[in-house]
Amino acid sequence: MIPTTITSWALTIVRAAESYGIERDTLLERAGLEPALLNDPQGRYPVAGMARLWTAAIEAANDPAFGLVVARFWHPTTFNALGFAWMASDTLEQAFYRLRRYFRLVTTGAVVRFVEQPDSCQFVLTPAPGLAVVKPPIADAAAATIHHMCRLLYGEQFALQKLELIRPKPVSMEPYEGTFACPMAFSRPEIVLHLNRSMVQKPLPTANIALAHANDRLVTEYLAQIDKHDLPSQVKTKLIDMLPSGEIQEEQVAQALNLSLRSLQRRLNEHRLTFRMLLNDTRRELALVYVRSPRMSLAEVSYLLGFSEPGNFTRAFRRWTGATPTEYRMAASSRLN
Predict the structure, then answer these.
(1) In total, how many domains does the chain have?
(2) Are 145 and 76 in contact (CB under 8 A)?
(3) What are the pLDDT digits (tens) for 251-303?
(4) How far is CA 93 from the centre of its chain?
(5) Which residues pair with 241 in a beta bridge?
(6) 188 and 102, same domain (yes or no)
(7) What 3-state class would DSSP assign to 194?
(8) Model's pTM, two decimal places?
């Protein structure tokens, strides 16, 4: 399935560009994007088209900190019903769980995790395997937008413990220090926001459980519309949810999708796919993301991918990449240094 991004995120980029005096029609024409979709709250642009839009906006703005400016134009409507569910969450922790669960609404071009530790939490965003190298302003905008969303929800007292970015250190640090006001590390494999655990668990006065759940339903309906003609994506989504529970049987996934086993097999065959192929592809795609993260032990990766024994994971990973997970992680780390 071609990776896509919700068009309201493109509208945020365009509005930021307009603040520099750049005409939206010029940007959309250069990016080859359909202007009518820009104001469609259900519309989606291909990630490749979004990359062209970013390139055009970055060149026209001629501002190394353009990505930080984009974040200021974020509004709850930017993320459709997910934005309102975020704002109505009872804690930042629950807000991040929502963002992790429904992030496909925003884009299918990245993978996100929310990692809990005794005294801290990390929200981790990784570009999906196979995508082109992320331009620095795009990474800046992603981190600054999440930071902006947290401040809108928690208040001006919100502060990060640390921020890791997948971009090289900028020549001028002033805009970054003014935006994030925390220790920062650059040229990292992922975007990581380090959060104080007591802060993310603090009850918020703006919480509205009924409103949050109502928007959860709207998000679920939106995602169902995206996936209704894409059974392989539906299967992969179920696999991601179910893998940590252990070895998954085809019958379990068919039941979760309200299909008979024969119907699932027949419909996958129409795509020239089998359940085993999708299971293997899903595990491989997630493994390439997880193994690159130094915060995840290989035992944890093995668990998240549903392997009964770490040895089984190691053998599968060697089959996928020609290297053990440890060798692959060391090679990825050396490329960044």
Answers:
(1) 2
(2) no
(3) 999 999 899 999 999 999 988 899 999 999 889 888 887 887 766 789 988 98
(4) 16
(5) none
(6) yes
(7) strand
(8) 0.75
